[in-house]
Amino acid sequence: MAVSKNVNTAIGLGAAVIFVLGITVPINWFLINGVLKEGALSWISPSFAEVDLTFLAFIMFIATIASMTQLVEMVVEKFSPALYSSLGIFLPLIAVNCSILGGSLFMQERDYTLAEATVFGLGSGVGWLIAIVALAAIRMKIRYSDVPKPLRGLGITFILTGLMGLAFMSFLGIQL
Amino acid sequence: MSIATAPEPVKESKPLLSKKDRKLVTDPLSDSNPITIQVLGICSALAVTTQLKPTLVMAISVTAVVVFSNLIVSLIRNLIPSRIRIIVQLAVVSLLVILVDEVLKAFVYDVSKQLSVFVGLIITNCIVMGRLEAFAMGNKPGASILDGLGNSAGYAWVILAVAFVRELFGSGKLFGFRIVPEAFYAPEFGYVNNGLMMIPAGALFIVATIIWIQRSLNKYTEEA
Question: Is A156 in contact with B208 (Cβ distance < 8 A)?
Answer without folding.
Answer: yes
